[in-house]
Amino acid sequence: MDRLTLFFALLLMGFVGICSSQLVLNNVGRPNLSLAAKNPIGNTVKLDVYMEAQCPDTSRFVHKQLMKAWEKLGTSGRVEWTIIPFGKARCTEKGGDFECQCQHGSNECILNQLMNCVIEKTVYPEKFIPIVNCIQGERNLESATDKCLTEKEGLDQKLMKECASGSKGRRLLALAGARTVALRPPLTFVPWIVIDGERVADALYDLTDNLCKKLQPAPEGCAEYTRK
Fold it and tell me: What's the pTM value of the predicted model, to 2 decimals?
């Protein structure tokens, strides 16, 4: 095993440790399904969105496609929602910490880290998806925390800022990076949308339709799509 392969293998092991709360939930239920879902009927679909906080294409997708799909299917209990903020960034381990460079600059790294901190803290999609939507496209950490981290979300602004700008945020970003570089085929565009393990390029333009095509029987949120 070469050094690079070993490095990412260790990162993935670290990811398991840092997200142990999610893995425990995985053993007893569906951690990325809505808490509101009660005994859903039919199959479930797994959605993974690989993204960047200041990428214009990601912003359009999140605000128009992801949120539309969430509004229609979020409480159905039929979709597992996973968000991986990293994209085309790069992280290098240095002395027990990480140094990261992001495609759209240092503010994007901080915002990617903030998203990862929020996801790690909140666990459930009905909590983190609206916050990620709010953070997406913001200018910097201050504007994102002031606008998106309100008391009603149960997130302490000070602690989230410390996570986003500190070693924990960088480690979470590096772990998101380990998951991203493990993609096969590799990520060449952001956002990179994976449904049930396969990249679906058309989901960039109509995510809800692509999810509904895989749900049998179709839930209520797919009604307008099943009539096509």
Answer: 0.84
